[in-house]
Amino acid sequence: MSVDTAFKVSSRWYSERLRREVTLVRWGHHGRPVLLFPTAGGDAEEVERMLMIRVLEPLINAGKIKVYSCDSVAGLALISGEGDARHQMWVQDQFHRYIRHEVVPAIRNDCQSPDIEIWSAGASIGAFNAVAVLCRFPDVFARAIAMSGTYDMRRFYDAGPHEFSDEFWVSSPLHFVPALGGRHLDVLRSRFVLLVSGEGRAENIGESWAMAHSLGSNGVPNRVESWGHEWHHDWPTWRAMLPKILSDWSKTG
Questions:
Q1: What string of DSSP letters covers the chain?
Q2: Global pTM?
Q3: d(C-alpha 68, C-alpha 25), whole Å
Q4: Confidence tier at 228 by pLDDT (50, 70, 90)
Q5: What angle (nearest 5°) sits at the alpha carbon of residue 8, between those of residues 113 and 107?
Q6: Are 173 and 214 in contact (CB under 8 A)?
Q7: What average pLDDT score do residues 167-186 get?
Q8: Which CATH number fits domain 5-252: 3.30.465.10, 1.10.260.40, 3.40.50.12160, 3.40.50.1820?
Q9: Does residue 183 register a pLDDT over 70?
Q10: What does the alpha-carbon distance between residue 23 and residue 12 come to, in Å, rounded to a whole number?
Q11: Where are the domains of the chain?
């Protein structure tokens, strides 16, 4: 079984927000849109090269989901050392704004629905972005699947404790969720975050528990799910996790 190549579409444009060319790729033609974030430095086609699309084929071909993926612009800026720490924090904030104001409209236009809700997903730093966009934009994103996530990003920046900018704090759900209120928080409390992790090599499920505490303390529905010590921080784990979760979710809407 393979995904019909007619249902893989790649779009590229210049983002004024990010000040660079960006790519969005879609696989499938019907079903719930799922925005699948790459890992730290991955591009929009990483998920295909790492065989994630292959294991999602049954759901894609059955019209249960449409998968979208974009370049990990902020992650690449961070790991490549683009500019200084404040610039990298700016890119992270602008990346989320690009998702909301460029990627989401593109997805909704492709789905021919101006208000369709989107599920976000990702692994490692992709999990951070999946949770962040749901928490920042709960009017758009309904559910998030965060696999083997890293949520306290401060250790990745070459910055002192007093050098973190507003762009960092508004981009980090671990830190901004406790400050939310009003309608934003009300809508977020109607959403759901699944924080799933192994406990094997290079995994740190403590990151998921910390994120869960930040969400749960503010009334945001979430669940931490451990797959145990035999599952490592690597693509075979995520290829096992994501199809199972999306298959279960597609049965309940």
A1: ----GGGEEEEEEEETTTTEEEEEEEE-SSSEEEEEE--TT--TTHHHHTTHHHHHHHHHHTTSEEEEEE--HHHHHHHTT-S-HHHHHHHHHHHHHHIIIIIHHHHHHHTT-TT--EEEEEETHHHHHHHHHHHH-TTTEEEEEEES----GGGGSS--TT---HHHHHH-HHHHGGG--HHHHHHHTTSEEEEEE--STT--HHHHHHHHHHHHTTT--EEEEE--TT--SSHHHHHHHHHHHHHHHHHH-
A2: 0.95
A3: 6
A4: very high
A5: 25
A6: yes
A7: 97
A8: 3.40.50.1820
A9: yes
A10: 4
A11: 5-252
Query: What is the predicted pLDDT for the residue at 14?
Result: 97
Q: Binning pLDDT at 50, 70 and 90, where does residue 251 land?
A: confident
- Is 224 a residue whose pLDDT tops 50? yes
Mean pLDDT, range 70-74, rounded to an integer = 96
Nearest Cα neighbor of 187 from 221, 216, 212 is 221
